[in-house]
Write a structure and sequence with these properties.
With 73 residues, the protein is mainly α. Helices cover 60% and strands 0% of the residues.
């Protein structure tokens, strides 16, 4: 587990982020392509090594077809 996971809430968030991608049936590579990012960006976000801001979360939510509230504890 990454040292960036300061709280249980953030741990919950990254778990939901990964789960949403998997439910959308996308690989990290496919998600990255849609978001015009590298696969390592998706990986780091899902591992909690890279914090994402609300605007980035909005893009993830749109791609994964989830409401923003899905990612919150």
């Amino acid at each position: 587990m990454s040292s960036m996971l300061y709280t249980k809430e953030y741990q919950h968030f990254v778990e939901r982020l990964k789960r949403a991608r998997m439910l959308a049936k996308l690989t990290q590579q496919e998600a990255a392509k849609h978001l015009k990012k590298r696969q390592t960006y998706i990986s780091k976000c899902e591992q909690g090594e890279r914090r994402i801001d609300v605007l980035e979360l909005k893009k993830f939510a749109h791609l994964y077809k989830k409401p923003l509230a899905y990612f919150l504890p």
